[in-house]
Amino acid sequence: MTEQPVRVRFAPSPTGYLHVGSARTALFNWLYARQKGGVFLLRIEDTDRQRSTKESIDAIFDGLRWLGLDWDEAPRYQSEHMETHRKAAQTMLELGVAYRDFSSDDEAETRRAADRKEGRVYRAAKMRALSAAESKRRAVAGEPFVLRFKVPAGGGSASFVDGVYGPLSRSFDEIEDFALLRSDGTPVYMLSVVCDDYEMRVTLVLRGQDHLTNTYKQILIYEALGWPIPNFAHLPLILAPDRSKLSKRKHGEVVSVGAYRDRGLLAAAFRNFIALLGWSPGDDREIMTVDELIAAFSIGGINKSNAVFNFDPADPKKWTDPKAIWMNGHYLSNMPLDALLPLVKSELGQAGLWDDRFEREDARQFAEIVALIRARFYSTKDFVTLGRPYFTEDFGIDPEAARKNLGEIAMPDLLDALANHLETASSFDLPTAESLVRGVAAVAGFKAGVVINGARTALTGQAVGPSMFHLMIALGRDRCVSRLRRCANRLRDERARATA
Ligand code: GLU
Fold it and tell me: What is the CA radius of gyration of the chain?
């Protein structure tokens, strides 16, 4: 027997943004398809017309494109297939596995409450018992009804083998007579998903564990219609630190893929991070290229226990899981410089800091600066915040850094002395920079650290940064000289003002 070609799908309901958990579901499906040489399908579950705006759907497309998760066939829009779904419901009615429930809303509610009290699931016994002729007569007379699945009575269960959780089953006694069509005739999610998966010839349904209880009902529909049942595998949930479900309403932007892009995370790093939420390659690898992920992915490597996202909305450094941020730093430091430069250009452009010289006469210096400062950065946004002094003369001095490093009474003279030596030195390279700095300190009777820290703050406005001598070379002699003098003058002015 030849094996069926793999067809998997990602079936988001548009909600205005792409949820991190949905992105992970999409990624796992995509990895699986790519590994098996199969097909990755996209289905937009847009039957809720109010939420399914163009913006909402675009947010899904944008998020998937950003993550590099390309789909193989035209996206299917669920709302365009409601007629087919209705026909399937009609077939079930004809087969006697569905029934019209004419109960009024009040009646249904009363029954539901009574059933619940007695620990029973919803069954409209009287309606189940209506003869086909009587049921049809009432429908033709225009009496509204909900079409329900007639869960088999008299024992038995819906069972399947989940790719992650193993054999699972639920007794029929625990499955209510769920709706297939609403009283306005529109198909219910439970039915539409099955019809679409069948029509799309999906071979494996890989989706969140929150759909597990739906799977039993969906299997009943497949069986009733005599359709081949796909394989199922359910992914553990991603939880907030307090173990509640990650929700945008409760937890804010940490839940939305767009926030990661907006905050300067790299798609490759974010993809790597979410791949490891509830899945592991079976060894201790963490940093993995997309090809490595494709090769290593397996349903067997999916964890049964829920993944926990460690974030703390009160701490700006922990707006999302620190591991995501750490990973991004790793990617920033290690990606090919050629691939990083355009991203930095775009950030600088948005911040009004881009200068065309950076890719013409100053191209080499620009690349050196990016290479030097990226090692300490965690997000591409850092290039315009912490990195600002490396790209413009218009930067401020961090007051904390000034207090720490510029307070020495002799500092203006030390900075000027360094500027003078730099200006007249016969060469400008790392050893020269280092010996000039140390020389100025020694002559004035200070520890080298005093001049190193002072100069660093004068040159960048900051107390920390890359190696001071390297940064001097990266900035270039002229800029070093003018910044040292500017800072020395500023310090003198401030002191004069303070004593006036
Ligand atoms: N539209 C559903 C959701 O966004 C997914 C349905 C499915 O994967 O079967 O949660």
Answer: 32
pLDDT in tens, 246-290: 988 999 999 999 999 999 999 999 999 999 999 999 999 999 999
Model pLDDT for residues 13-49, shown as the tens digit of each residue: 999 999 999 999 999 999 999 999 999 999 999 998 8
Choice between 118 and 6, residue whose per-residue pLDDT is larger: 6
Q: How far apart are CA 60 and CA 13, in angstroms?
A: 9
Paired tokens of 463: 């107390």
Q: For position 500, what pLDDT does the model report?
A: 80
Instruction: Please tell me the distance between residue 74's alpha carbon and the centre of ligand 1 in angstroms.
Output: 18
Ligand 1: atom nearest CA of 210 is 10
What's this model's pTM, rounded to 2 decimal places? Answer: 0.92
Q: Are strands 39-44 and 231-235 parallel, antiparallel or unpaired?
A: unpaired
Please give the positions annotated as active site. 248
Residue 43 Cβ inside 6 Å of ligand 1? The answer reads no
Q: Is the CB of 488 under 6 A from ligand 1?
A: no
Place of tokens 């660093």: 456
Token pair recorded at residue 375: 């090692």
Specify the pairing of strand 157-162 against strand 204-208.
Answer: unpaired
Q: What is the pLDDT of residues 141-182, one digit of tens each?
A: 999 999 999 999 888 999 999 999 999 999 999 999 999 999
Q: Is 483 close to ligand 1, i.e. is its CB under 6 Å away?
A: no
Mean pLDDT of 291-309: 96
